[in-house]
Hints:
Layout: E1 9-12, E2 15-18, E3 21-22, H1 23-30, E4 34-38, H2 39-53, E5 58-63, H3 70-79, E6 82-85, H4 88-96, E7 104-106, H5 113-121, E8 126-129, H6 132-145, E9 149-154, H7 180-190, E10 196-202, H8 213-231, E11 238-240, H9 257-267, E12 274-277, H10 281-284, E13 288-298, E14 305-308, H11 317-321, E15 327-329, E16 338-344, E17 353-361, E18 369-373, E19 394-398, E20 401-406, H12 411-415
Parallel strand pairs: 4-19, 5-6, 5-12, 6-7, 7-8, 8-9, 9-10, 10-11, 11-12, 14-16
Antiparallel strand pairs: 1-2, 2-3, 4-13, 13-14, 13-18, 15-18, 16-17, 19-20
Helix pairs in contact: 2-3, 2-9, 5-6, 7-8
Function: Specifically catalyzes the decarboxylation of meso-diaminopimelate (meso-DAP) to L-lysine.
Cofactor: pyridoxal 5'-phosphate
EC number: 4.1.1.20
Amino acid sequence: MTAPLSDHIHYQDHQLHIESLPLSIIADRIGTPFYCYSEAKFLQNIYRCQAAFQRFDIAIYYAVKANSNLSILRLVQQAGLGVDLVSGGEMLRAHAAGIAPERMIFSGVGKTRQELCAAIESAVGQINVESQEELVLLASLSEQFTRPVSVALRVNPAVSVDTHRHITTGSKGNKFGLSMEQVVPLYQRYADHPYLNIAGLAMHIGSQICTVEPYTNAIHKLLELVTVIEADGHTVEVLDLGGGFGIDYGDEQSLDFEVIAQTIASSVAGFEGRVCVEPGRSLVGDAGVLVSEISYVKAADPCPFMILDAAMNDLMRPALYQADHPIVPLQTNLSDSVRRYDVVGPVCESTDTFARDYPMDAELVAGDRVAFLCTGAYCAVMSSAYNSRSIIPEVLVSGSEIRLIRKAVTPSMLLEYESQTDALD
C-alpha cells in the first residue's frame, strides 16, 4: 500500500505535516487520538470538482453524510455548493451552516413523517422519493401543508459495481430506490397532483467506484425511462446522478473528476433538463487524517501487536467493511528497517483491528505516534462512545492556524444524560 500524500499532507524535516504544521504539535496540545483536516486540501478538491463539472453546467451537491461537521459545511456553503441530506439531523446542520433550503436535496430510504414535514416546512429544493409508500405519504402531507413539493423518483437501475458489497446501492436486492417498472406508473399517477411536482429521476449506485462503466450503464437506463415518460406527455426536468466517485486509499485506484464529468456529459448529451451530482468522499476523504499514539508494542507470534489509543469506535470502517487506510508514522527518521505488525485498538472486540501483517518502521515503540490517512470521509461521522470511550475531537488547519471544530465528548459528559431519571407519565 502506497501512502497517498499531497502538498497539504506531507513530510518535511522527517515530520508529518498538515499544511504548514507538524501534526505532532497538535498532538502535544490536545492529546490523541483526534481527527485533523486540511482546509486548503478540501477547498482544492471542491475547486477541481467545480472546474470539471460546471463547464458542462452540471450542478454539485455535497453529500453531507461523508462529513457533517459544521465547519466543513460552512466551507461548502462559502464555495457555493448545494447539499445532499439523508436525515433530519443533517438538514438541521445544513440550516445552521447557512445553506439555503433551495440548495438542499433530501434523500434517504426511510424518511420519517417528522422529517418529511420538516422538509416541506423549510421548502427544501428537492425530495428524492425512494418508494411508492413514501410518495403516498408525501402527497398527503403536501396537501395538509398546502405547499408545493419538488420530487425526484430515485431509481434502482440494477447495475453491478466493483466495490464492497456493503456500499453498493444500485444493484438488485438493495433496499434503495424504485424498480424500473414502478417509475412510469408513478409519474402518470401523480402528474396532475396539486402540490407534488414530479420533476425528474435520481440514482445513486454505490460508493468508492473507480470506473465509469457502471455510471454509463445506469444513465442509459435512466434515459430509457425519460424517453417513455416524455412519450407519455410528461416532462423530466432533472436527472440527479448521485456520487460515489472513488479516491486513492493507497492502491492507486480512483475516479478523476475530469473523467467522470466528461463521461456524464457525453451520456446525457441529448437531455435538455438539469443535471446534478452528489460527491462526498471525493471532496473531503483525502483532506483528513486520524492521529493516534502507540500504547504498547506487544510481543506475539506471528506478528507483534501495535496497540493504539484509537479504536474501532473512533474509526469504524475497517471493522464495518474491511476498509484499508494507509498508516504512517508522524516521524520518519527512526530506522531503515521494517517490521510487520497487527495494528489494533483497545476495545474489547476482535474486530477492533485496523490492519494485519502491516509493514512499518521496526523501531516504533510505545509513545510514538501514527496517522491514518484518507480519514476525512465516513470516519468521524461514524464514531461512537462504545466501551464508554470519548468521542474524539476534530481539528481544522488553515495554513498555520489550528481550530478545534469539535470538542471531545467525554464519558463524564455522557454520564450527565443518565444521571437523573425522569418518570414518563
